[in-house]
Amino acid sequence: AWTPEIFAQEVEDEWDYTKDTPGTLTLTEINRVKGHFTLPPYEILDDKKLDEEIKTQAKKNIAFDKWLKRNVRAHKIDGYSSVTLSLKPTGVAPGDLTDSQLEAIAELADEFSFSEVRATHNQNIVLADVKKSNLYNLWEKAKISGFATPNINTLTDMICCPGGDFCSLANAKSIPIAESIQRKFEDIDYVHDLGDLSLNISGCMNACGHHHVGNIGILGVDKKGAEFYQIQLGGSSGIDASLAKVLGPSFGESEVPDVIEKILSIYVENRKDDELFIDTYRRIGIDPFKEKVYPENLARKKRDK
Q1: Are 185 and 263 in contact (CB under 8 A)?
Q2: Taking the alpha carbons of 260, 149, 200, 271 in that order, is the dihedral positive or negative?
Q3: Which of 33, 42, 214, 267 is 20 to 30 A from 162, alpha carbon to alpha carbon?
Q4: Would you give the end-to-end CA distance of the chain in angstroms?
Q5: SS (H, E, C) 166-212
Q6: 194 within 8 A of 187, measured Cβ to Cβ
């Protein structure tokens, strides 16, 4: 089997072989393809004035303010924002939609985003071109259809595969694990205090839920016909990409939420100021988490000394 170092060298060798060949994507080709696309009919808007209006609205409504901070992103065009409709309310399978909700999304897109929506690999929906002046109205309507949970890029914004409930390849169910974590961490203020944090769940090693690149990853495994869950820590799919490491022996379904709680408690105890989970993990390593989750191992080590 290849070691990570050998694999990395193979990638570098392949890059050296293929770069600057006829298959290289040139600026000329990029501009040619770009010419086939047209921008939406953006209006010229007063960005500063709109920002002041939004600040006033946010001060009057705490729930709207939380949604702004989590679900709304900056746009390159003045006066517009990119809005993520969360498909992760408590009690709903991550990314799941009903037929009526799909129709509601289409209506929101027609009214607020040039009739365009984008599905993300995080199992959410993005309205990419929303006027800032329409944000409050959009939020009000998104609430009606269940799309306004202010949890984007937080613990409960999980990526979760269909798992054993729907997939014949799965070794274990995934959706019940996601729901149990949602219900364990319903306190949105606590979730917000944790900051950006990715938790990904896969029902088998095919990793459709991207568990191996989650800050916290959960992998369903089969042990003699019984479902268990392996916890992994330290993954990242960002520019600082890294693969998660296995924390230790796997757990039964009912144990998983409490294990996640213990992991988070170590993060909260050790973080510095607004340090993110992944940064705290990289600074202190995996051992403090192991000691919290597997105290019997720590006790054994002390006895052996």
Answers
A1: no
A2: negative
A3: 267
A4: 36
A5: CCCCCCCCCHHHHHHHHHHCCCHHHHHHHCCCCEEEECCCCCCCCHH
A6: no
pLDDT of residue 303 exceeding 90, the answer is no
Which residues make Cβ contacts (< 8 Å) with residue 11, sequence separation at least 6? none
For residue 279, the one-letter residue type is D
Is residue 131 within a helix (H) or strand (E), and if so which, with residue range?
A: strand 125-131
Residue 147 three-state SS: coil
Torsion angle, CA of 289/291/295/299, rounded to 10 degrees? 180
Q: Give the pLDDT confidence of 139-181 residue by residue, as tens digits.
A: 999 999 999 999 999 999 999 999 999 999 999 999 999 999 9
pTM for this entry? 0.90
Tell me which residue of 40, 167, 180 sits closest to 116, measured CA to CA: 40
* 235 DSSP assignment: -
Helix, coil or strand: residue 116:
coil
Question: Locate tokens 């939020």: which residue?
Answer: 139
| Cα–Cα distance measured from residue 291 to residue 262, given in angstroms and rounded to the nearest whole number | 10
Classify domain 47-145 at the CATH topology level.
Sulfite Reductase Hemoprotein; domain 2 (3.90.480)
Is the predicted pLDDT of residue 301 greater than 80, yes or no? no
The structure tokens listed for 79 are: 């006066």
CA distance 5 to 3: 5
159-298 belongs to which homologous superfamily? Sulfite Reductase Hemoprotein, domain 1 (3.30.413.10)
Distance CA 147, CA 67 (A): 11
Q: Are 252 and 230 in contact (CB under 8 A)?
A: no
Tell me, what amino acid is at 106?
A
Instruction: Give the start-to-end residue ranges of the domains of the chain.
Output: 47-145, 159-298
Can you give the pLDDT at residue 302? 63
Residues 6+ apart with CB under 8 A from 9: none
